[in-house]
Design brief:
It is built from 21 helices and 14 strands. It has 572 residues and is an alpha/beta fold. Among the domains are: 151 residues, no CATH class; 102 residues, no CATH class. The longest helix has 37 residues.
Length: 572
């Protein structure tokens, strides 16, 4: 009892200290939620308490995570007056705060008078009191601006007093109040019995405003999931659907019916590689299941993002999927991480990615692909180093992930090539300039890859025979590239991350003090064969140029050494 009182007092003190600031603002989280609701849910599950920030103009975001709040009187007397004063409040997050029935009632009263809130996150708060949930549901339904609600892990479906049956009254009440929302998150709520899934199915079939729905980790299984697929035939608004970790093995009705998924742009059918559910029988791993998805992609639907991670898909099964990628022109992001892919799948991906020009990201991390397989795919698709022309004709937009930063990339150069492909032009005055890609950035990507290929990936390319027929107008550009190396003197910054043995301010030099870049320039000039323009006199000039550069560097080093000797003698 004493420990409980001390803990309550400590929590009360922490919350009071947290509320002593004039405003608590986390603009970055709010902006991310507005841009991409599916991605924002990863941030909402963070275990860190949001850092309070001072905003002298207004309060737009209020967030408390993983802090047990004092009794309802504290919320009613301390929080509600502050919320009501801030008419510009747009985001309210109370994650895992043990609100209880009285706390939910307070939130409902606040929503009934508020007109500015657009984002509400009450995840990881138990909601098994029907009266308080009805009040919250009514307040959500009547709110004029609310568009995003997160009620994941809220015990919406719970056992009765005898522990024999699951009660769905709370879930029914919540769904009734969320009919006007655009985004709804109901992850980890035990929506797995037929009665609960039927309620969600009826909600989907009758809804005309919802665009994002997440039902991840409810372990509903194939039979109950079919109820959702049938309901989606009557829905034309849903665009993003998450059914990850639901023990789905054969989503037949979803992919065979054109009306069920023709409007979907984002689909998550991921599973866990380890932990529950862990059985391979509860995953999309077989060839028939993958063929269903492949046939769906061949029809070129509106789908932009597909997540199939953790489904134990084998190399033989994935061939059907890669064959459909060759002709698909809509899919931009494909996640096949944490499966059972080996080097045997590399040839099929090679063929597909050479034909596909719309895929922007492919995640093959946490598979069984070895270094040789990774190197083969990178040098075949992303940075073909067989010739300088092949480097220029490689794919410069695909973000290929195979190691996820786990291993050193001395052989594959995966990190550098991937970072080069994801470079974007920074535009002044634009908050997020990573959304813009121009021909200027594509030219920069090619230059980076040429330098990486010449001096790291395939040094045989740096041969005089490769420069014999180079046009005169391209010679200055080649001389410029010959003086650079990715990761040194600031060249290629953004394509190589810190912590990979790179120092941007340190310049590579040989022990004798000669800059190796001068040798490269000399070799390029010598290798450039234009006899009609310069003949023998040009070679003499190149030799003189090289000796002159060598003399300048040697003299400079000698002068510096003499100056150091004089300073030492002066100090003595």
């Amino acid at each position: 009892m004493i420990c409980f009182d001390l803990l309550s007092t400590l929590n009360y003190f922490l919350v009071c200290l947290f509320l002593s600031w004039e405003a608590f603002v986390n603009e970055q989280m709010s902006d991310e939620i507005k841009k991409n609701p599916l991605k924002s849910r990863e941030g909402l599950r963070s275990s860190d308490v949001a850092q309070p920030q001072r905003n002298h103009n207004s309060l737009s975001t209020f967030s408390i995570k993983n802090v047990v709040l004092p009794p309802s009187s504290f919320i009613e007397q301390r929080l509600l007056p502050m919320w009501n004063k801030k008419t510009s409040l747009t985001s309210l997050e109370l994650h895992d705060c043990e609100l209880g029935a009285s706390g939910i009632q307070c939130i409902a009263r606040f929503l009934s008078t508020n007109e500015s809130l657009s984002i509400l996150d009450l995840s990881s708060n138990v909601m098994n009191d029907l009266d308080s949930v009805k009040a919250l549901s009514l307040a959500i339904k009547d709110h004029p601006q609310l568009t995003f609600v997160n009620l994941s892990d809220s015990n919406l479906v719970y056992s009765d007093q005898n522990g024999l049956e699951l009660n769905t009254d709370v879930l029914s009440s919540i769904l009734e109040g969320c009919s006007n929302l655009k985004s709804l998150v109901l992850d980890r709520n035990d929506i797995k019995i037929e009665g609960a899934v039927s309620l969600v199915a009826d909600f989907i079939a009758s809804n005309t405003s919802l665009t994002v729905l997440s039902l991840a980790n409810n372990t509903m299984g194939d039979a109950n999931a079919e109820l959702l697929y049938k309901a989606m035939r009557n829905n034309t608004s849903l665009q993003e659907l998450s059914l990850g970790q639901n023990r789905i093995t054969l989503p037949k009705l979803l992919f065979e019916s054109k009306r069920a998924c023709e409007h979907l742009t984002h689909l998550d059918l991921s599973a866990r590689k380890y932990g529950y559910p862990y059985s391979n029988k509860e995953k999309i791993r077989t060839t028939p299941s993958v063929k269903l998805i492949a046939s769906y992609l061949t029809r070129n639907p509106a789908l932009i993002e597909l997540n199939l991670s953790g489904n134990s898909i084998t190399s033989s099964a994935v061939r059907a999927l890669t064959s459909s990628l060759a002709n698909n022109i809509s899919l931009q992001h494909l996640n096949l991480s944490r499966n059972s892919l080996t080097d045997k799948c590399i040839p099929s991906f090679d063929v597909a990615l050479k034909k596909n020009t719309t895929l922007l990201s492919l995640d093959l991390s946490d598979n069984k692909i070895k270094v040789t397989g990774r190197k083969e795919l990178i040098q075949s698709i992303i940075c073909d180093t067989t010739s300088l022309e092949a480097v220029a004709n490689s794919n410069h937009t695909l973000k290929l992930i195979m190691t996820n930063g786990k291993y050193k990339n001395d052989l594959t150069r995966e990190d550098e090539v991937r970072n080069i492909n994801t470079l974007r032009k920074k535009t002044e005055g634009v908050k997020d300039s990573t959304l813009f890609d121009t021909s200027e950035t594509e030219g920069q990507k090619i230059r980076y890859k040429v330098v990486l290929a010449l001096f790291s990936m395939n040094t045989d390319l740096f041969s005089p025979t490769n420069f014999e027929h180079l046009p005169l107008e391209l010679m200055p550009r080649l001389l410029e590239l010959a003086q650079h190396e990715i990761g040194y003197n600031g060249y290629g910054e953004g394509s190589v991350r810190y912590g990979q043995g790179v120092t941007w301010s340190t310049e590579k030099k040989r022990k004798d003090g000669i800059d190796p870049y001068l040798n490269r320039v000399y070799e390029v000039v010598i290798g450039w064969n234009t006899p009609l323009l310069f003949n023998v006199s040009f070679l003499i000039m190149c030799a003189f140029f090289y000796r002159l550069c060598h003399h300048v560097v040697y003299t400079s080093n000698l002068t510096e050494r003499s100056r150091q000797v004089e300073e030492e003698e002066g100090r003595r």
